[in-house]
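Predict structure. Chain length: 553.
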Amino acid sequence: MKAPSPWRPDKLPLLPAFGALTWAWLALTPSLLPRPGLFQGLLCAVAGLIGYALGALFDWAISSIGVKLTDRQRRIARQSLAGLAVVGTVLMLIFNVLWQRKLRSSIGHEALTWSYVPLLLLTAVVLFALLMILIRLVRAFGRRTSRLINRIMPPRMAAVVALVLVTLVTYGTFNRVVFDNVVEGLDASFMAINQEFSTDLPAPTSPNLSAGPDSSMKWKELGRQGRLFIHSAPSADDITAFAGKPGLQPVRAYVGVGTDGEIDLRQEAQLAVTELEQIGGFDRAVLNVATGTGRGWVNENQAQALEYMWGGDTATVSMQYSYLPSWMSFLADGDRSQEAGRMLFEAVYAHWLELPEDARPKLVVSGESLGSFGGEAAFSGAQDMAERTSGALFVGPTANNTLWQQFTDERDKGTLEIAPIYQGGQTVRFSDGGKDWPGTSDEWAQPRIGYLQHPNDPVTWWDFALAFNKPDWLSEDRGRDVTPYMTWLPIVTMLQVGADQAMANSVPIGQGHLFGQAPVYAWAQILPPTGWTDVDSVRLAPVIKERVDKLPS
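Prediction complete.
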């Protein structure tokens, strides 16, 4: 039978077409977060392509045992499939819109616009057609190559050789021509962005800040996120105005990756310790070792919460380990954030041990998202962290976090994956919003290790295991704002939650990957200064919100 033309995506074989249609429908089922039409269409196209491949495999299997349709049967089947496609797609789109509206309403997200369905359909159809054309061109190239080789080799050997050659050529073309050029371009772009100012930010004049008078760091070498971090530090006057008594200028030490593109993490860590010494970081009451995200971003809600609580008698140190966004940094070199977190803490800890015991600051660690992934890396477990720190706060952990995964997997019997209790909560506890930290122990012993996580945060709940294993968080009682209509589907759910990550920071605060001022309440439980009360936390949260909202982007 003549192969379908690569330029006629409408002429699809029956079983592959049915597979593509079915999987595209499945991709329309609800997930953790609402998606715009563009992302939903992209998801449907990718799922449809997988369904097409599975249908083609099934088609080949039944054809190989001699099952064939007559021309009349094929015509009837094609007409029936066309009718099913129209009716089924209309119904699934209606259900999808209803699910989307309900999900958006439950989390306080903006309503659907009129363009949602047209954009969804256009994206899905166009992208699926383009992918099909590309795949068929590769297949046509493979058949042509096989025929040429068949002139000098037996048919079966020719087919194998052709497959190897086509695979190598396709991989080489994509890897060297497309992927390498794209990555090189993005790498150069983000390196340039790293050196730019988002606004005309002046260098600091305080001796307690990196790039200030007592610092060895140069303002231009801190990188974009480093400059924003230093610029965003509250002043002594800010602290005093909130506390009602004299406060200090918080110490902030930061080491960027420089301007040459060369990144030596061990050297950076040692520079960070030297910087802390020069600007007085080891003389403060609290020293916060904060691991940033890919580009070096440090959450101001976390940093300023400690600074205000402790009257500015704090130091925060961080270093940049990449100039790429978190997702690109993780894909390009997923181990770098862990190496950075481990090296920075070990360097700081080594110097901290050299100080007289009565002169040592309280040492804490913190990080958000990929920063939590790196911040954990210096420790082998809860006991190790408790022995070497005075507390820890990790916000929005990723599914790849080693210790988080260990604590979650080894949670006490009967507790939920989305709200685990580990060893009664003696040392490690988990919270949704930072105020309540469930545990069966009578007291949350010091030092305290806390994780802030949302039940509908795809960054926390996505991993490759979702492809073939139903997670506990979909088998147990659903968490806050997780729709009861979400159903685990092999491969599809992994794709859905993966796509949800693109929207994780575009939802209202308190949902997805946005935690707002929850770290204020969290630090108030993990490391409160003497005399700090819940009333103080309630008073501080809006102050920090106002400051963060005014920060340059």
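Summary: The chain has two domains: 14-191, 204-454+515-549.
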